[in-house]
Amino acid sequence: MKRLGDQVQAADWKSEKHAPVIECPDRVVGDAPFQIAASVGKEIAHPNTAEHHIAWIQLYFQPDGEKFTQQLASSEFVAHGASAKGAGEGPALTQPAITATVSLKRSGTIHALSYCNIHGLWESVKEITVG
Ligand code: FE
């Protein structure tokens, strides 16, 4: 039986337009707020149309040595050019980018998960050291 986790694709964001880019410090001070940004399309643009778009990005934290994953933030991207005048004629586009302000007590791994309405789930990871 295939599990959902088996369906999540991973790739280098420099060569695969679906893979989210995670931008945050490599090292932070414990309990001090810092920003984590994640976006899709930094190197290779992804389509942003009613028919084909990035619908959401979620951020997770896996603390080193712990069993359970923490969700940090979630952002849904809703405007993709839809309009009563026709697809692509709408006045607004939401770009697939999220920024969260976070503080951590221990080192671990940041996971960014993105969802393309056609090409499914994509993940990137970045290790972060506290201390
Ligand atoms: Fe796609």
Number of helices: 0
Shape: globular
The description of the largest β-sheet is: 6 strands, mixed
- Uncertain parts: none
Structure ligands: fe (iii) ion
The average pLDDT is 96
Secondary-structure element sequence? EEEEEEEEE
Radius of gyration of CA atoms, rounded to a whole number: 16 Å
- Which structural category do the helix and sheet elements fall into? mainly beta
Strand content: 35-45%
Secondary structure: helix percent: under 10%
C-alpha termini separation: 41 Å
Number of strands: 9
How would you describe this protein?
- This protein is an all-beta fold.
- The protein contains no helices and nine strands.
- The chain is globular, with a radius of gyration of 16 Å.
- The strands form two sheets. Strands 1, 3, 5, 6, 8 and 9 form a six-stranded mixed sheet that branches. It has a three-stranded antiparallel sheet with strand order 2-4-7, with no helix packed on it.
- The structure holds fe (iii) ion.
- Residues 18, 46, 52, 116, 118-119 line the site of fe (iii) ion.
- The site of fe (iii) ion has 6 residues, from loops.
Characteristic terms for this protein:
single chain; mainly beta; 6-stranded mixed β-sheet; 3-stranded antiparallel β-sheet; about 45% strand; binds fe (iii) ion
Write the layout of secondary structure elements.
Elements: E1 9-10, E2 21-23, E3 27-28, E4 34-39, E5 54-63, E6 70-76, E7 97-102, E8 108-116, E9 120-130
Parallel strand pairs: 1-9, 3-9
Antiparallel strand pairs: 2-4, 4-7, 5-6, 5-8, 8-9
Bound molecules: fe (iii) ion.
